[in-house]
Design a protein that fits this description.
- The protein has about 240 residues and is of the alpha/beta class.
- The protein is built from eight helices and eleven strands.
- The strands form two sheets. Strands 4-3-2-1-10-11 form a six-stranded mixed beta sheet, covered by helices on one side. A five-stranded mixed beta sheet has the order 5-6-7-9-8, with no helix packed on it.
- The mean pLDDT is about 100.
- The structure holds ligand LP5 and manganese (II) ion.
- The site of ligand LP5 has 26 residues, from helix 4, helix 5 and helix 6.
Length: about 240
């Protein structure tokens, strides 16, 4: 049996080709799995479960079909879709799990996370994250009219894009010390995350520990396939 891990699909009506690729993955690969783990940023932006569009309807229908057929599907929030709520999770039959959840993955102690929390050198982002994760602020935001929510999200995206283009590569990536700290603190074998859009399998010298980074789906289908036989990070063209 096999478990699949994906992240950073950034699905939206603007890129229905990615939505199609995701549907194909669900119908052809995930359907045969033990479990599917979505490690954040499934959607390009999420500003409330009450907003329905072509993409969210397709995703809900297809994920429900998958979960109804017996495949467990787990979801960790990303920095773009942390407002995804319980009503959408229910429509999909998905279960939310916390960022930094530790699971036993075919005998390996594995931490699952979106990855943004590891980017500790990005102080502006960490401040932003702390603010938008305040429950009372999220409640207020979700009670605003849809048009205002779209407007604020668009402003945030514009500012984020402008800021990111000025940030050094090392700031946009995870902080190496932070990674080592997590491995030591929790005695991990594996860590799996996305967010940085730098797909790779990182090994540590003289150790069997590995950090697996999922890629985005802009040009490729970045899928991690884990079974008792080992791991494979796939990256087929869309
Ligand atoms: O996503 P990515 O990879 O491009 O960049 C991230 C970080 N940026 C973000 C911001 C998101 O893209 C915006 C998401 C909108 C979510 C929906 C609305 C929710 C509202 C909730 C209210 C309670 O996450 C980026 C990191 C990068 O990853 C790499 O780690 O660097 O961080 C930033 O860009 C942070 C900026 O430096 C600061 C963000 C400024 C936001 C300004 C707010 C303006 C509001 C205007 C209101 C009218
Ligand atoms: Mn992200």
């Amino acid at each position: 049996m096999v478990s699949y891990f994906i992240a950073d699909l950034h699905l939206s009506d603007k890129r229905l080709d990615i939505v199609k690729a995701f549907v194909r993955f669900l119908q052809e690969q995930a359907i045969h799995a033990d479990a599917l783990y979505i490690l954040g940023d499934l959607f390009d932006v999420w500003v409330g479960d009450d907003i329905k569009n072509q993409t969210s309807n397709i995703v809900a229908t297809e994920l429900k079909q998958l979960t109804d057929s017996g495949v467990c599907c787990y979801f960790i929030y990303g920095n773009r879709d942390f407002l995804l709520g319980s009503s959408f999770l229910k429509r999909c039959g998905m279960q939310r799990i916390q960022d930094q959840t530790i699971i036993n993955l075919y005998g390996r102690k594995t931490m699952l996370l979106h990855g943004d929390i590891l980017c500790t050198l990005d102080e502006n982002y960490q401040k932003f994250r702390k603010t938008v994760h305040k429950k009372w602020l999220q409640w207020l935001f979700l009670h605003l009219p849809k048009s205002i929510r779209f407007h604020i999200a668009a402003k945030m995206r514009t500012k984020s894009q402008a800021d990111n283009s000025q940030k050094a590569d090392s700031i946009m990536d995870v902080t190496p010390d932070e990674v080592v700290k997590k491995f030591q603190q929790y005695q991990l074998d594996w860590m799996i995350h996305g967010h940085t859009h730098r797909p790779a399998i990182h090994s540590f010298p003289h150790s069997t520990q590995q950090r697996i980074v999922l890629g985005d789906w802009y040009e490729q289908r970045s899928i991690l396939c884990v079974s008792e036989c080992g791991i494979e990070l796939q990256g087929d063209k869309l």
